[in-house]
């Protein structure tokens, strides 16, 4: 799962004191953070019955890549939101887990962690937050990882208490989305005005809802996951240069959408929803959304070079 954070390379101490090198500071902090999060430096392997395990022999480590860019945050502008521009340059697609730090007239911290090792929200947050705390001078993290896997063990004997229909298979049906199709990545911003417009289309007994939360119902023919990370304080990361311009999941995944807090350049705060859909589905989604918000739908193009622009909202 790719995660990315953009920072301005500012001198918080003021004066003429030279700026420390973010690469060295973050790399040294990463070394100390992995003492507490040592499984992230291991390698996944299959055991008996294909059970996944983490090999922590001390022979491996985390891949750390430094790179320089000849553009600044100002060049990227308001495009600092998922799908993140130039992501293929900021984050190397290396088999297994990887991390990259890139200077950009500010700097970027980008990581790629296998979802089997940790979730893309709280797990990544606490790991990167630990790096930030150590980078700012802490001797140990304020929150230590908890590895009590025994609490997830099945009862003896096992007892099934819930039917998980999301794993059912039905003959003669197909998945809801062809993951091999050409997918379009876009983000949609929902501020007060957009939420208010959508609320008016709800039944009267639901119009007092502001976040439209609810437990999703999985169909037997496939499913679409909406992951809500809006309560994870990604915007509070600080490696010693202040809070990020943007921090969060770098892009949506097929069949999975991410919701997170986002502040526009105008200062308006709201929810940013990332989506990855086939071309025709994205075009249809924008047209349906426009009926609720009253906005004119943006033209959808199949050219990936044009998918990094802001959405219609």
Automatic annotation (TrEMBL):
GO MF assignments: transferase activity
Protein name, per record: Uncharacterized protein
Keyword Transferase: yes
Keywords per UniProt: Transferase
InterPro entries xrefs: Plant_acyltransferase (IPR050898)
A Pfam cross-reference name: Transferase
UniProt key word Transferase: yes
Organism: Populus tomentosa
């Amino acid at each position: 799962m790719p995660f990315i954070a953009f920072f301005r390379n500012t001198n918080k101490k003021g004066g003429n004191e030279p700026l420390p090198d973010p690469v060295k500071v973050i790399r040294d902090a990463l070394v100390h953070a992995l003492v507490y999060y040592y499984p992230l430096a291991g390698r996944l392997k299959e055991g008996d019955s294909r059970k996944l395990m983490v090999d922590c022999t001390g022979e491996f480590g985390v891949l750390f890549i430094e790179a320089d860019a000849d553009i600044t945050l100002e060049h990227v502008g308001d495009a600092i939101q998922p799908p993140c521009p130039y992501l293929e340059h900021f984050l190397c697609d290396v088999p297994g887990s990887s991390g990259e730090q890139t200077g950009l007239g500010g700097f970027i911290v980008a990581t790629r962690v296998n979802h089997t090792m940790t979730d893309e929200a709280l797990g990544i947050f606490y790991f990167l937050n630990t790096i930030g705390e150590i980078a700012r001078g802490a001797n140990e993290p304020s929150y230590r990882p908890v590895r009590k896997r025994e609490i997830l063990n099945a009862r003896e004997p096992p007892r099934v208490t819930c039917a998980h229909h999301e794993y059912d298979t039905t003959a003669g049906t197909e998945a809801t989305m062809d993951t091999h199709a050409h997918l379009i990545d876009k983000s949609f911003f929902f501020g007060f005005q957009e939420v208010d417009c959508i609320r008016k289309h709800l039944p009267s007994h639901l119009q007092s809802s502001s976040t439209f939360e609810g437990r999703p119902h999985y169909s037997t023919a496939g499913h679409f996951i909406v992951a809500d990370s809006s309560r994870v304080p990604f915007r509070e990361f600080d490696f010693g240069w202040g809070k990020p311009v943007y921090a969060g999941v770098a892009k949506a995944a097929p069949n999975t959408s991410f919701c997170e807090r986002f502040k526009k350049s105008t200062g308006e705060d709201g929810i940013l929803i990332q989506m990855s859909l086939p071309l025709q589905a994205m075009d249809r989604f924008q047209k349906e959304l426009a009926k609720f918000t009253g906005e004119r739908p943006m033209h959808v193009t199949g050219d990936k070079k044009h998918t990094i622009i802001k959405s219609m909202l």
